[in-house]
Amino acid sequence: MTLTQLLADYGYLAVFAGSLLEGESMLVLAGFAGHQGYLSFPLVVLIALCGGVLGDQFFFFLGRRYGEQLIRRFPRWQPGAQRVNRMLLQHQVSVIVGVRFMYGLRIVGPLAIGMSEVPAWRFILFNVIGAALWAPLIAGAGYLFGQTLQWLFADIKRYEEAALLLIIATALLFGLLRHRRRSP
Q1: Which residue blocks in 21-119 are alpha helix, DSSP H?
Q2: Domain housing 140
Q3: Distance from CA of residue 6 to its chain's centroid?
Q4: What is the CA 4 to chain-centroid distance, rounded?
Q5: pLDDT in single tens digits along all 184 residues of the chain
Q6: Which of 30, 44, 59, 154 has the smallest number of Cβ neighbours within 10 A?
Q7: By the 8 A CB rule, do 81 and 71 touch?
């Protein structure tokens, strides 16, 4: 089975799973696959939007119920939670909308907001708006990457496996670097 066949078979599931957590790399890859015709770009955006909203809602309510315990259990989340709390005091709406765009705060952000006094209805409303911006922008970056490759290489089908591998390798490298940076 080829990489492109795997992507076509399990791509939507991977987009949803990745969007529940920090799924930017998966979403860029899915946007590229949408450009290549392996996945439907509108469906990728819709699935990412749903996964992004559900994931952030989960962490918001987890923070509301168990936030203090989780911060004690995972002390490396403390600085991110404090940062989100400071920003919430001045820019509540923009923090709720934009937390999914902030590096390293995709999980801790909604958790910290859940620990705050932000009403659940307010978080839900602005979380949906944030996801509605995030999903097409990030998937669009992958789509644009595919468009650029097509413009650069007239016969892109010959290079698509290499491009997919390059995107996956880059995503894995960034994930590994992020993990090493977080580890003591």
Answers
A1: 24-36, 41-73, 78-90, 92-98, 108-115
A2: 3-182
A3: 21
A4: 21
A5: 565 666 677 889 888 988 888 778 788 888 888 888 888 999 999 999 999 999 999 999 999 999 889 988 988 888 888 888 888 888 999 999 998 888 778 888 999 999 999 999 999 999 999 999 999 999 998 888 877 766 665 555 566 667 777 777 777 787 777 667 665 5
A6: 154
A7: yes
| Predicted TM-score of the model (pTM) | 0.77
Task: Please report the sign of the dihedral spanned by the C-alpha atoms of residue 108, residue 106, residue 97, residue 45.
Answer: negative
Tokens of 80: 């991110």
Q: How many domains are contained in the chain?
A: 1
**Could you give the 3-state DSSP secondary structure of residue 9?**
helix
Token digits of residue 159: 């290079």
